[in-house]
Amino acid sequence: MVKKSTILAQTVLSLLLATLTSFGLAWALAFDLLKDKMNWSARESWPFFYIVWLLLLIIWLVPLWRRSRERLLLLNLTKRLYTLANHPDLDYKTDGNDESDLPENQEKRQLPTYSNQARQLTALVDRVVAEFNLAHEEQLAVEKSKDEMMTNISHDLRTPLTAIIGYLGLVVTPNSPLSEEDQAKYLKTAYHKSNQMKTLVEDLFEFAKLQTTQVSLNITDFSLGDLFDQVLANYAMEAENRHLRFATNLDPRVIVMAGDSDKLARVLINLVENALKYGQGASFIKLTGQVKENGLVEIRVINDGPAIPASSANHIFERFYRVEESRNNKTGGTGLGLAIVKGIIDQHNGHVKVESDETATAFVMTLPLKQVKEE
Description:
This protein has 9 helices and 7 strands, in the order H-H-H-H-E-H-H-E-E-H-E-E-H-H-E-E.
């Protein structure tokens, strides 16, 4: 690559040679032309000599200046091409052997590093901004869900409480005109509403416990068949009123398994209540237990009620989430029941999923048949 200092040196040398040459030519030409015609001596020809010298110098310097300017432009263009050739986005790099020690070239060699650092910093900033926006959107979604949950809780607590107060008020009123049959019916309704409130409060309490890291499991050996029977017995009357058939199917190899029976009972209660609440038109609810490979047991809660939309299947275990079709005054709920199910199954090192189509919906839990007892 041609150095700018070389161009300047050549230009200065050319100017010096041009000055000396034009000076000599001008003096010789002026003296030769005028000494005979004008009878001028060498001393008298000096003024005219200077005029001729200046004209020759100008005539000489103009093209020289143009050539120097063109060479400088060419030098700048060459440097720009060199910079482009070494751009970090290009695969080809010049070796830079000609002028590797020049300060400007040393600085150029740092440009790819600076450019790479700038790109990395830009990518980092973009990633941080994207993560912040995602976290902000998730936080807004959680806040919205919490607001909806509080609205649901207020409604679900106030509605049965109002009914309980109303029915009990009629029963305990002195000289009540109600017959014993009506009083029994009102007391039964108040009892049913009380159980609704109890379930709601238990959901909130259980969910609050699952949010802490100090929750421990009381691991014991228990009969899965007995657990099935105990859970279904709580809803025998409701099943009879709805002409709903309960059934169980248990693999003989899973008669006894290990786990926190109280918490697993809570899981089954939530799933059965979920089937009763949202399984309008269902004809049966079935609990099954099957031994799988690698020392696992698979528990299913099956009903033939309406299918769960595919769009909801991936979110149904999220806290506060409720399937759109279920958000009505008849079903109520906080949206915590299935989140509690997942939390308890996770504590048992298990997995839960939902399978749903037009024929049936099954909540499938896979758990270790044996659990490690906590010290």
